[in-house]
Automatic annotation (TrEMBL):
It comes from Papaver somniferum (Opium poppy). Residues 558-658 are annotated as: Disordered. It comes from the Eukaryota. This is Suppressor of forked domain-containing protein. Residues 568-577, 606-615 have a biased composition (Polar residues). One of its GO terms (molecular function) is mRNA binding.
Length: 658
């Protein structure tokens, strides 16, 4: 090749190497890999060429033989290659087994049976493992590039596919020796990291597996390599420092913490806390705590953590108390810090200082920040105080928080509960919670001030119930089929007169309304334009929803719909509309023509199923039925006959009118 970095020419050369023997292909692969040392596809092709055992077997079989001893050595060498191949879960393992069987039979049929029976179970195991492994490998996209995770579905699927494959290799399904199994697992992790290069959990799993198998030095190397790829990953740094500290390497662990802290100005509170804990275990943490408290990013968490370390681990309650008091000068306005300080004093059983702390905090905190402090104060009195002190604190809380906490059964439940034991059922608690929420919403709405310039009218518009009609679904179905003429209105024509369009005062409001209506579909816009103007009060959505949530709506069992009730007080117009929906429309000639009894019989026969009609006992009806059957059969025989000649004159006349 003139240009060794020409990708197209390289692919052509790699494809050409597939058609060559292994001896001729090796120089080509070496040339390709010297130009592209990280090209995984060329490495894969090179290795697979070595793994194709047919070339190996053919090479050994083609060796020249000079004496029987060399023939025996060559046969043993070929046999070992076959035996290793048929016990390896790889491609074409079934074909390899057939070739091995032919080879043994060609050498000695007497010895072939023993050799085949010995390796038959191993071959079956390799074949089963290959099939199971192939299912996992097929889910992996081997062309996926290593990019930082973006959270896409494809990346998540590939990550899970790799983890399933790694878990499969760790189970050692083929039950091979530990050294071979570990080699396969290492290879699987290296392959996984070629695609999931920027995933910290994969690096952590790899390092943890190395440490669990007794290779602490190799685990450290994995962490070092991972931090070169992900230098800003705090998770990997904490995991790395844990490994270093666990094996007694204090100075390397301290350097990792210093890389986390930097200059200390921009370090997080969590980094300060973890470094203080590390120094307390290895050196001394007091000096660093004094320096850390002066940093601007030092939050109350650092004070609480150092005080808890002094109390629980160093067994020094005096130092812990001093740390909390020092923090009060800086975090008096933070309710969470007050609660942590109160918990510490409760552990000391110092109820006097707890009450003093609550009083100090409540005098400095605004009402909106003191809700949790008041709640903890009442809980403290319920545990350490008497009934008089409990009622006193609860009354003070109600006064301080105005109407946010009115007297309710919740106070009784709180006073007479212990751990998970309560003096009421869960249903009662749900009811009390809904009542409290409803009362809170009502109080919030009541506190809203009404503007003095408000011109809201107190008049309420009620619907005109005298013009109500009974709804019948058949009206809309059948009325749409009727012609839209003066005698019979169409289904779109309403019984009620169209309401007047809402009057809008001011051109600006009219333009805004027209702009909104222009966006809506035509049918919806026409509906909105016909709506009457609303001059009454606007309902409060929160209160309506709260009332609906408290209402017990009975469940309705689904069943057959009941027939539409017939009322006797309908107006003439409504009766005509119902008839139009229930009975097919007939012309005036058909209505006034003779044979009314026949029409009624036909209508009953059309509306009543044949299975539910009773057998007629009237001789006249029986003859009519026979005559109708005869007419039907004659109609079927001659479809071109006249309709009027088959039926009565009435029906023929009606058809002629149309």
């Amino acid at each position: 090749m003139v240009d060794k970095y020409n990708a197209e020419a390289t692919d052509i050369l790699a494809y050409h190497a597939l058609s060559l023997s292994m001896t001729e292909a090796v120089p080509i692969y070496e040339q390709l890999l010297s130009a592209f040392p990280t090209a995984a596809k060329y490495w894969k092709q090179y290795v697979e060429e070595y793994m194709m055992l047919h070339n190996d077997v053919a090479a050994k079989q083609s060796l020249p033989v000079t004496d029987p001893q060399e023939e025996s050595q060559r046969t043993d060498s070929i046999r070992k290659v076959y035996q290793k191949a048929v016990t390896t879960p790889t491609h074409h393992v079934e074909q390899l087994w057939k070739d091995y069987e032919n080879f043994e039979n060609s050498v000695s049929r007497a010895l072939a049976k023993g050799q085949m029976s010995e390796y038959q179970p191993k071959y079956n195991s390799a074949k089963a493992v290959y099939r199971e492994r192939k299912k996992l490998v097929d889910d992996i996209d081997w062309n996926m590039l290593a990019v930082p995770p973006t959270g896409s579905d494809k990346e998540e699927q590939q990550c899970m596919a790799w983890k399933r494959f790694l878990a499969f290799e760790k189970r050692n399904p083929q039950r091979i020796d530990s050294e071979s199994s570990n080699s396969r697992i290492i290879l699987s992790y290296e392959q996984c990291l070629m695609h999931l290069y920027y995933y910290p959990d994969v690096w952590y799993d790899y390092a943890t597996w190395r440490a669990d198998n007794g290779s602490m030095d190799l685990a450290v190397k994995v962490y070092e390599k991972a931090l070169k790829v992900l230098p800003d990953s705090e998770l990997l740094k904490y995991a790395y420092v844990e490994v270093e500290e666990s094996r007694g390497e204090i100075q390397p662990a301290k350097k990792i913490y210093e890389s986390l802290l930097g200059d200390g100005e921009n370090a997080s509170a969590l980094a300060h806390i973890q470094f203080i804990g590390f120094l307390r275990r290895t050196e001394a943490a007091r000096k660093y705590f004094v320096d850390a408290r002066s940093y601007p990013n030092c939050t109350y968490h650092v004070f609480v953590a150092y005080a808890m370390m002094a109390f629980f681990q160093d067994k020094d309650p005096k130092l812990a108390h001093n740390v909390f008091e020092a923090g009060m000068k800086r975090f008096m306005h933070v309710p969470e810090y007050i609660l942590e300080y109160a918990d510490f004093l409760c552990r000391l059983n110092d109820d006097t200082n707890v009450r003093a702390l609550f009083e100090r905090a409540l005098n400095s905190l605004p009402p909106e920040k003191s809700v949790e402090v008041w709640k903890r104060y009442t809980q403290f009195e319920q545990t350490y105080g008497n009934l008089a002190s409990i009622l006193k604190v609860e009354q003070r809380r109600k006064e301080a928080l105005s109407s946010a906490f009115e007297g309710s059964l919740h106070d009784v439940v709180s006073r007479y509960s212990f751990m998970g034991l309560r003096p009421c059922s869960s249903k009662d608690l749900d009811y009390l919670a809904r009542q409290e929420l409803l009362a809170k919403n009502i109080n919030q709405k009541a506190e809203k001030s009404v503007l003095p310039t408000s011109t809201t009218s107190a008049k309420v518009n009620y619907p005109d119930t005298s013009r109500m009609i009974i709804y019948d679904s058949r009206q809309l179905q059948d009325a749409a089929l009727l012609p839209n003429n003066a005698e019979l209105p169409a289904a779109s024509n309403s019984v009620l007169p169209a309401p007047a369009a809402p009057s809008v005062v001011g051109t600006g409001t009219t333009k805004s309304l027209d702009k909104i209506l222009g966006v809506l579909p035509p049918a919806l816009a026409a509906f909105v334009r016909n709506l009457p103007s609303v001059d009454g009060p606007v309902p409060d959505v929160d209160i309506v929803l709260s009332i609906l949530l408290q209402s017990n709506v009975p469940s309705v069992k689904t069943g057959k719909l009941a027939p539409v009730p017939v009322t006797s007080d309908l107006s003439g117009a409504n009766k005509s509309r119902l008839n139009a929906g229930a009975v097919p429309f007939k012309s005036s000639k058909q209505v006034h023509s003779g044979g009314k009894r026949k029409d009624m019989d036909r209508q009953q026969n059309d509306e009543t199923p044949a299975q539910s009609q009773p057998v007629p006992t009237d001789l006249f009806k029986i003859r009519q039925m026979k005559k109708a059957r005869g007419v039907t059969s004659s109609q079927t025989g001659s479809a071109s006959s006249s309709s009027g000649s088959s039926f009565s004159g009435e029906l023929s006349g009606s058809i002629g009118c149309t």
